[in-house]
Amino acid sequence: xxxxxxxxxxxxxxxxxxxxQVRCEHNVDxxxxxxxxxxxxxxxxxxxxxxxxxxxxxYNFSGADINLIKVTPTSLTxxxxxxxxxxxxxxxxxMEIPLYSKLSKIHEVxxxxxxxxxxxxxxxxxxxxxxxxxxATCHSSAAYPAPHLTWLVNNVKVDERLTIPHGTVNVxxxxxxxxxxxxxxxxxxxxxxxxxxxxxxxxxxxSTIPSYPTVGEGYADVQNQTITVNLVRLEPSPTQLPxxxxxxxxxxxERLKIYNYFIFIMIxxxx
Length: 271
Known about the structure:
Blueprint: E1 6-9, E2 13-15, E3 20-26, E4 33-40, E5 43-49, E6 56-58, E7 65-66, E8 75-79, E9 87-95, E10 100-103, E11 107-112, E12 120-123, E13 127-128, E14 133-139, E15 148-153, E16 156-157, E17 163-175, E18 178-190, E19 200-209, E20 221-231, H1 248-270
Parallel strand pairs: 2-11, 13-20
Antiparallel strand pairs: 1-3, 3-8, 4-5, 4-9, 5-6, 7-8, 9-10, 9-11, 12-14, 14-18, 15-16, 15-19, 17-18, 19-20
InterPro entries: Ig-like_dom (IPR007110), Ig-like_dom_sf (IPR036179), Ig-like_fold (IPR013783)
Protein name: Ig-like domain-containing protein
């Protein structure tokens, strides 16, 4: 017999009130399967036994409704998922000939509340010098769990060493009893580090659940805002020649010198 593999597949993030399909995938010949069991947090939620009447047995399960019409030996559809439906899921395949069973690895499912609004960016100045620093703050919309904030400048992710996370804030709002939170972050970006500076810079605040996109699913929730900042080259002020300020006595002396010089010129012309 070749090596048996069993894997439970389900979305890692499900929006509150939505549905999710939980599948027990394997490489076993379906004709040799005797029993399939689904678990949540190590407790049985459904069992299929071939040849038994009825073949399905359901156990105490809270947090979602099992769609009985869509049940198959290797899949469940969970409707109207509540926060109690979050947890670790697994499945087990048992064969009769040869007598063998295989348990999958656990798979975590999270129930989330999406953001209703885009994040908000605030910047200190709309016009900046290309050699200055771009300073900005961003806060997300309320959600569960609190979103993760990522900064981008000209669509390029900013080095996290240039960002300052300020944690999450409980906004005293609830979704079906679950408290919602928002996330704050600030940015200090040296514009001189841009390799190809333009006359404008696009700054983006990306607010996501989870922090990074999962393989095959991407983000469960994503919002963003982009603001354009103008870069202005500041021209140096023109230099002035030094000007000597004369006192009243010095001023009279200078006028007398000019008068005497004028008389001397006139005498030379006459003679």
